[in-house]
Amino acid sequence: MSVNSDFEKRILCIGAGYVGGPTMAVIAQRCPQYKVTVVDINPDRINRWNSDIPPIYEPGLWEVVAEARGRNLFFSADVEAGIREAEIIFVSVNTPTKTYGAGKGMAADLQYWEKTARQIRDCAESPKIIVEKSTLPVKTAQAMKRILTAGELADRFEVLSNPEFLAEGTAISDLTDPDRVLIGSDETPAGRQARQTLVDIYANWVPAEKILTTNIWSSELSKLVANAFLAQRISSINAISALCEKTDADVAEVARAVGMDNRLGPKFLNASVGFGGSCFQKDILNLVYLCQYYGLHEVADYWKGVVDINNYQKDRFVTTMLTAMFNTLAGKKICLLGFAFKADTGDTRESPGIVVARRLVEERAELVITDPQALENAQKDLADIADQIRFEPNPYAAMEGCDAAALLTEWQEYAALDFERVLSGMTRPAFLFDGRNILDHQRLWKMGFNVFSIGRPALTHFDPARS
Ligand code: NAD
Ligand code: UGA
């Protein structure tokens, strides 16, 4: 009997990234009866998954991988062999914003997606259930089915939509205890059967009432809408933070008062330097493009506003720095405390840090960047100006001799820094810009810092009314 036939099902995931890796690791951990293989065209990524050095930083991930790897979880660069063997194929390749042609800067670039569809069609020797895990525009499943059915096995592919809702930094708890699992399928006998196969996988650890089934289009659209709603809350509170700064209101107090309304809830109301991450902007622009495509221009403009406010917020942060530091940053030494788009990840995709760093270098500031997990990615993001930036893992060394520090990522270790020690090494007047509102501003101001936060009055030693 072969090793493969010892397993109840063979699952393949194409794309070993931030979604494919953790998602499959959890399926393998929770379902030892299935063989789970993750493949990628990037052999370096696969080598990292097979090594002792994870390709991504995600709390708790490595313990899950260690439990299942080699038992029923495998990482491989042989995509075609993986396709031939599996009965269920999750597709979790990247779907970035298009950078060329029609829909440039807005629509999803589906080239990786389509290549995968064609590859599945060309290699498959038996029926398969194809699961869209990537975030895709509405009706992509239909396009995929058209590509798949242009081959010999025409009626033997079922396409399901099963969008992923995990957030980086909390991926493992999001996967092991999800708010919901969403599965969209065709309402045909074959579609319903495929859906049940996928429901059966999740039922190994997710309670039945949390597994939602819908039609394919609702499922695809729900993913875009969930991200749009989450990002909209951040842009809403960030827009209000600008008003707070003008009116001496405190955005944290406003958020608390608003969030205590049960109908609104307290989450996702932290004003910040702006949201980042590979998906919010991409998915909203994708939604905007879809609305435009269907002639819904007012709806498109409404959602576009969420991205516009986010860009405004990043821009406002740099303007505050420039204005506070007497309208010139040239030759001033500034430290960016944190570069990841949020805490507990090394991911820097669309991080506000990228915009802030570039703007500060344009102003001819001397930049130092520190981050506990993201310095490797920061160096890649800023490769063209990296010779003008110092990358320093130690936050104390990074702030030594600086005129200002700007906190961009809410790493808890930054809230715990010894700021007396930091201040003693900084040039005076010393400025702190808290882009996440995690520091004790009153205490820092009393210590001697000039403190600027988001949506709160500035605390400076220049204004007699406040000193
Ligand atoms: P990623 O870039 O980290 O990973 C995608 C992987 O797919 C890469 O390693 C790439 O080499 C591989 N790939 C591309 N084309 C391939 C092909 N033809 N064959 C084999 N491998 C191929 O991206 P990600 O962050 O994992 O996101 C994947 C999808 O999941 C996106 O659609 C994204 O919107 C969605 N999503 C992401 C998150 C997140 O937190 N990152 C959360 C939910 C949903
Ligand atoms: C987000 C969603 O939360 C996930 O549900 C979704 O699956 C994922 O996008 C995706 O589709 O990629 P993620 O981007 O990993 O997850 O992280 P979030 O916690 O949503 O944070 C996104 C950005 O918003 C970060 O820059 C974060 O710092 C910022 N944010 C978040 C705020 O500025 N304020 C808040 O109150 C919350």
Model description:
The chain is α/β, with parallel strands linked by helices and 467 residues long. The chain contains 18 helices and 14 strands. It has helices at 20-30, 43-49, 61-68, 79-85, 111-123, 140-148, 171-176, 189-202, 216-247, 251-259, 280-293, 297-324, 352-362, 375-381, 395-399, 412-415, 419-425, 441-447, and strands spanning 9-14, 34-39, 73-76, 88-91, 128-132, 157-161, 181-185, 211-215, 333-337, 366-370, 389-391, 404-407, 431-434, 450-453. The model has no long low-confidence stretch (mean pLDDT 95). It binds nicotinamide-adenine-dinucleotide and uridine-5'-diphosphate-glucuronic acid (UGA). Uridine-5'-diphosphate-glucuronic acid (UGA) binds next to helix 9.
Summed up, what is this model?
The protein is an alpha/beta fold. It is built from 18 helices and 14 strands.
